[in-house]
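Figure 6 in text form: structure in, sequence out.
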């Protein structure tokens, strides 16, 4: 898994190495992303449905919101890998 961010914008690529360009990004495991996305929804975290879209943190998100999201996304990854 390769996380990336710029300012408050972030995304996850399920790849073996870093993502530095479009060719690297195309190597992402989109099937795993789809399972992770579904597991995140089941846990109350709503993400963009494409493996190639960014997510955003805003000033409306509290520390508790962010902590909840991180915990749920981590658990969702476990669910997605088990399927």
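Output sequence:
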């Amino acid at each position: 898994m390769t996380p990336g961010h710029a300012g408050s914008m972030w995304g996850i690529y399920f790849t073996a190495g870093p993502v530095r360009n479009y060719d690297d990004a195309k190597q992402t495991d989109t099937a795993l992303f789809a399972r992770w996305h579904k597991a995140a929804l089941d846990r109350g975290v709503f993400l963009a449905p494409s493996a190639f879209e960014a997510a955003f943190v805003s000033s409306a998100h509290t520390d508790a919101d962010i902590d909840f999201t991180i915990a749920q996304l981590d658990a969702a990854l476990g669910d997605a890998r088990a399927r």
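Caption detail: The mean pLDDT is 93.
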